[in-house]
Amino acid sequence: MIKVLLVDDHEMVRIGVSAYLSLQTDIEVIGEAENGLLGVEQALSLRPDIILMDLVMDVMDGVEATKAIIEKWPEARIIIVTSFLDDDKVYPALEAGAVSYILKTSNANEIAEAIRTTSKGQSVLEPEVTGKMMARMQSSKNPLRHESLTNREHEILLLMTEGKTNQEIADQLFIGLKTVKTHVSNILGKLEVHDRTQAVIYAFQNKLVNK
């Protein structure tokens, strides 16, 4: 079962999403929170597989909540579910550590599929969000940042584009998890990106992987 925590300040949204997800045979809602602060507390207490995070909330918004969760639990998989596509919402959310970004206009089945995909270590981004990220990278002054990657870092980056988690990469390459984390950190630094999602987008944009 994929265990899910819902963080949204609209009770009807929580009720609707929870009701639909309860019909899924592989997804279980284990908690709900009406603001970011409670969301952080429940996330760190319940350790769900997926956190569905609203952005605009009282007490603590989704970006701050995401930062707080990732700071104490870097492996958390957070899906932003919002009505906003503004740059001042998209970039801070992804830079805070969210791995997926979908709209509340998505139908219930699309939300369930996003949960399944994200639980496997892959990202789900609204097409417009992907376009924004690619345009932002395209405007960079140094479009060939990947040339500074070592062969091992390049190898790990390709595995990241396949949705592999750090542990899966470690197992496949027969190296330690700590070593993988160090390489991933180096990759993000050399590519001048903030997270794995941006690194994967960079890889596809610069045709580092044939997909």
Could you spell the SSE succession in H and E letters?
EHEHEHEHEHHHHHH
Task: Classify the fold: give the CATH topology of the largest domain.
Answer: Rossmann fold
| Distance, first to last CA | 30 Å
Q: Which structural class fits the helix and strand makeup?
A: alpha/beta
Highlighted features:
211 residues, alpha/beta, Rossmann fold, Arc Repressor Mutant, subunit A, five-stranded parallel β-sheet, 10 helices, DNA-binding, WalR-like, DNA-binding response regulator, transcription regulation
Concise synopsis of the structure shown:
With 211 residues, the chain is of the alpha/beta class.
Overview of this structure, please?
The protein has helices at 11-21, 36-46, 62-72, 87-96, 108-119, 127-138, 151-161, 166-173, 177-191, 196-205, and strands at 2-7, 27-33, 50-53, 78-82, 100-103. It is an alpha/beta fold and 211 residues long. It has a five-stranded parallel beta sheet with strand order 2-1-3-4-5, with helices on both faces. Helix 1 links the parallel strand 1 and strand 2. The radius of gyration is 17 Å and the shape is globular. The model has no long low-confidence stretch (mean pLDDT 88). Its main location: cytoplasm. GO terms for molecular function: DNA binding. Keywords: DNA-binding, Phosphoprotein, Transcription, Transcription regulation. InterPro entries: CheY-like_superfamily, NreC/VraR/RcsB-like_REC, Sig_transdc_resp-reg_C-effctor, Sig_transdc_resp-reg_receiver, Tscrpt_reg_LuxR_C, WalR-like.
